[in-house]
Design a protein that fits this description.
Distance between the termini: 36 Å
Radius of gyration: 20 Å
Strand content: under 5%
Oligomer: single chain
Number of helices: 11
Helix content: over 70%
Structural class: mainly alpha
Length: 275
């Protein structure tokens, strides 16, 4: 959470705006690269892109959303079978060359006994939790609706209804994560439910599209980034425990992954004749 949402979200928004301005890649390539991180990072990276190419907003959001789901589903396997083994081999090879040898390494106060198990992180579903989710999303919906009115002069009622639809889908997805015995991340359920209710031909499609299309992505991201700023202060101790080394590594990883993904996407689009 600290690396992805708190550090990654504002940084990738800045990185995306710089890359869109300086690197002559197709917007679709940057949209695909926006899906490399968490949902908040995805949205933050997409905002500068949508502002730069407003006429392509729908296509860019579709590419970014699809990329984020695929990255989320396949990323864990790439991490286990490719990234971690490669990182371990590189560490063993580079450590002696960098003069560390077998010296003791201080992990900035990291203590394995303080790592949470899955049972601690994803607890059981209960009425109290549903009420807290509902209250949080209700307040968030009001903030986004007001921002939508101020920023884009849309109807407050339509924006609020749209956010309630999104909130209901979110609550259902998060509930399914805790009900279904096989651990599947809630973002998968949320994405699939949202996709299903908006498919043309489904009875809910016209209703959902009519209202949700009224909400601008940038408004949602603005409200979320405000929360990120508050979270930095709230989780300052966790933030400090990562240390400056961890922050530097995180920024390098995010930068390399974003630029590498955009480069591969742009090459693929060119080879396949899409651009």
């Amino acid at each position: 959470f600290v690396i992805g949402s708190i550090i990654g979200t504002p940084y990738i928004s800045f990185l995306s705006s710089i890359c869109v301005s300086l690197i002559p890649y197709h917007p679709y390539a940057f949209a695909m690269a926006s899906g490399i991180g968490s949902a908040s990072m995805n949205a933050a990276a997409l905002v500068p892109l949508v502002h730069t190419y407003p006429a392509m907003a729908t296509q860019l959001e579709a590419f970014a959303g699809c990329s984020n789901i695929l990255s989320f589903c396949l990323g864990i396997y790439m991490c286990i079978f490719v990234s971690l083994p490669l990182a371990e081999k590189l560490y063993k090879w580079l450590s002696p060359k960098l003069g560390k040898g077998n010296a003791h390494i201080d992990d900035d106060g990291y203590r394995p006994d303080e790592v949470y198990e899955d049972d601690d992180v994803i607890d059981d579903l209960n009425v109290g939790k549903l009420k807290r989710w509902g209250a949080l999303l209700f307040g968030f919906s009001i903030i986004v609706a007001v921002g939508n009115v101020v920023g884009y002069h849309t109807s407050f009622v339509d924006s609020f209804i749209a956010m309630i639809i999104i909130s209901i889908i979110t609550i259902i997805g998060m509930s399914l994560e805790r009900i279904i015995p096989v651990h599947i991340p809630s973002i998968i359920f949320i994405s699939l439910i949202g996709l299903f209710v908006a498919i043309p031909g489904v009875p809910t499609a016209d209703f959902v599209a009519q209202y949700v299309s009224q909400v601008e992505l940038t408004t949602i991201c603005t409200a979320f980034l405000g929360y990120v700023g508050i979270a930095i202060g709230k989780d300052w101790e966790e933030f400090k425990r990562i240390g400056w080394r961890g922050v530097i590594v995180a920024l390098i990883v995010i930068t390399g992954t974003y630029l590498g993904s955009a480069s591969i996407a742009n090459l693929t689009l060119f080879v396949t004749g899409m651009i």
